[in-house]
C-alpha cells in the first residue's frame, strides 16, 4: 500500500508540473499538453499490463513445496553462478 501511495503522490506532483507546463511554455498549446497526457497514460497502462502478466505467471506457476529459505538459497546460488 505504501508503494501505491508514493506512486500516487508522484503522479500528482507530475500533473501539477505538467499543468504549469502550458503556462511556462513547456508545451506549445493545450493540444500538445493533452497528447502528452494521453501518451503518459498509455505508458502507464502498458506498465500495469506488464506487471499483471508477471503476477499472472506467478499465480499460474502454482505453489512451491520449498520453504522460503530454500527458495532464497536457490536464488542466491543461481545469481552467484551467473555472475
Radius of gyration, CA atoms, in whole angstroms: 21 Å
Distance between the termini: 33 Å
Counting DSSP H or I runs of 4 or more residues, the number of helices is 3
Biggest sheet details: none
Q: Can you give the helix content as a percent range?
A: over 70%
Label the overall shape. elongated
Oligomer: single chain
The secondary-structure class comes to mainly alpha
Residues in β-strands, percent: under 5%
Low-confidence sequence ranges: none
Q: What is the helix/strand order?
A: HHH
Give a verbal description of the structure.
The protein has helices at 2-24, 30-60, 68-82. It is 83% helix and 0% strand. It is built from three helices and no strands. With 83 residues, the chain is mostly helical.
Please render the helix and strand layout as text:
Layout: H1 2-24, H2 30-60, H3 68-82
Task: Please give a quick description of this structure.
This protein has 83 residues and is mostly helical.
Which terms summarize this structure?
83 residues, elongated, single chain, mainly alpha
Amino acid at each position: 500500500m505504501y508503494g501505491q501511495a508514493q506512486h500516487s503522490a508522484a503522479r500528482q506532483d507530475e500533473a501539477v508540473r505538467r499543468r504549469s507546463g502550458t503556462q511556462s511554455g513547456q508545451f506549445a498549446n493545450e493540444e500538445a499538453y493533452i497528447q502528452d497526457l494521453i501518451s503518459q497514460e498509455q505508458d502507464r497502462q502498458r506498465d500495469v499490463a506488464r506487471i499483471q502478466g508477471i503476477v499472472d505467471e506467478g499465480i499460474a506457476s502454482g505453489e512451491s513445496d520449498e520453504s522460503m529459505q530454500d527458495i532464497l538459497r536457490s536464488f542466491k546460488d543461481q545469481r552467484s553462478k551467473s555472475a
